[in-house]
Amino acid sequence: MSLPRIILVTGTDTGVGKTVTAAALASTLQSRGRSVAVYKPCQSGNVDGDSDCSEIVRLAGPLTAEAGVVLEEPLAPVPAAALDAVELPTLAAHAGRIGELAEEHDHVLVEGAGGLLVELDHDGGTLADLGILLGSGAAFAVVGRPSLGTLNHTALTLEALDRRDLPVLGVVLGTWPDNPGELERSNRATITSWPAPLLGTLPAGAAALPVERFREQAPLWLNGLPA
């Protein structure tokens, strides 16, 4: 698959490294001379200072980054919005803004909330549904853990995308340990044998690296990313 204009970054679960992956993708694309925008449909956890857009900008460097809605509590979007008494944007509104960003940039990275089927609006719309709205110019990057259970979680996410005829750019393994054991190596070998390509592995603690080193290393981590 050639590199799409819009890449939706989803995870097999929360906390698997979606934000760091989005930052590494942004760094890699910028190292190729591409202009990049980042869009987060629903950012929760603002009360704790969580901002995935700010973290991506910190790691990848100056770029356009914005959230469709910012919610206070560190919950899934629908319950977080209920506590804030906020009306969530529709998927159509998100798709419209992503389309505008795509007209102004070479690539738009869209980071989901949690996993693929977490609801992003009050009508049950998910990141998968947003991918359907965005059409053929978009594809998914699936981020998973290298640890026990990842084969099932990753396979389920890929199956959900396949059942919806949504294109998959590839899989990224986040939080790769400094000294991987047989379990991690076996999981990586198995995922590599699947039809969806392995785009790369991101080291555990990548976000704590000096930003210059992060930006330098990101293209090496994502050595399976197509041109």
Supply database-style keywords.
227 residues, ATP-binding, 39% helix
User: What number is the mean pLDDT?
Assistant: 97
Distance between the termini: 9 Å
Biggest β-sheet description: 7 strands, parallel
Number of helices: 8
What coarse outline follows from CA principal-axis ratios?
A: globular
Query: How large a portion of the residues is in β-strands, by DSSP E?
Result: 15-25%
- Write the element-wise H/E pattern from the N-terminal end onward: EHEHEHHEHEHEHEH
Unreliable segments of 5+ consecutive residues: none
Strand order of the largest sheet: 3-2-4-1-5-6-7
* Tally of DSSP β-strands: 7
Output the radius of gyration.
16 Å
Pfam families: AAA_26
Binding site for substrate: 44
Subcellular location: Cytoplasm
EC number: 6.3.3.3
Summary?
With 227 residues, the chain is of the alpha/beta class. It is 39% helix and 23% strand.
Give an overview in words.
The chain is α/β, with parallel strands linked by helices and 227 residues long. The chain is 39% helix and 23% strand. It is built from eight helices and seven strands, in the order E-H-E-H-E-H-H-E-H-E-H-E-H-E-H. It has helices at 18-31, 52-60, 77-84, 91-104, 127-134, 150-163, 182-192, 211-221; strands at 6-11, 36-43, 64-70, 107-115, 138-144, 168-176, 198-203. It has a seven-stranded parallel sheet, sandwiched between helices. Strand 2 (36-43), helix 2 (52-60) and strand 3 form a beta-alpha-beta unit. The chain starts with 5 loop residues before the first strand and ends in a 6-residue tail after the last helix. Keywords: ATP-binding, Biotin biosynthesis, Cytoplasm, Ligase, Magnesium, Metal-binding, Nucleotide-binding. The active site is at residue 40. It is found in: Cytoplasm. Its main location: cytoplasm. Substrate binds at residue 44.
